[in-house]
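Sequence only, no structure available. Ideas?
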Amino acid sequence: MFDAQGSENVSHPLRVVPLSQLARAGGLGLGAERSYIAPVLFWIAHGQGRLSVGGQLRGYTGHNAIFLPGNLSHGIEISPRCQGTAIFFAEKSMLPFPPNELHLRMQGVQMQSEMNALIEDLRQESQGTSPDRDLVLYHRAALMLLWLNRQAGRPHVPNVQVSDMLRAIAQPKR
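Reply:
I predicted one. Tokens follow.
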């Protein structure tokens, strides 16, 4: 149901889906290996389960962020008691995605609160009807991905063009 299709028309950079909705839809589990064309982020706020990525089995618990790049074979077990969010990104968005999969166990209340706030902001904006909604969604998603990269110890290094642009913005006008 949530597999991205090549013909899918995505009008905004992401789709925010509660894990409970994915669990009810069925078809998930370790025996149901799948891959999405576009990247996906699972935020497990509460509960536990198992995840298989590329045939490697691992567990997850509450306060885990799992980022899977597009076209990566995986299976995820989401129990009815599991709470959290899945964020499906648009296939061709130019967001600063992590280069590889990430599985972060968020230690500490501040990190957990920051992640919850980033996702809640995305969820609220995705339900809005503001004319600049897509632009705001794009930038909120970019901020969240940059934050995740930093938490993983792999800060996203922008290319020269972006650095020049940021430097130009930061310089006061004369």
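The longest strand covers residues 40-46.
Hope that gets you unstuck.
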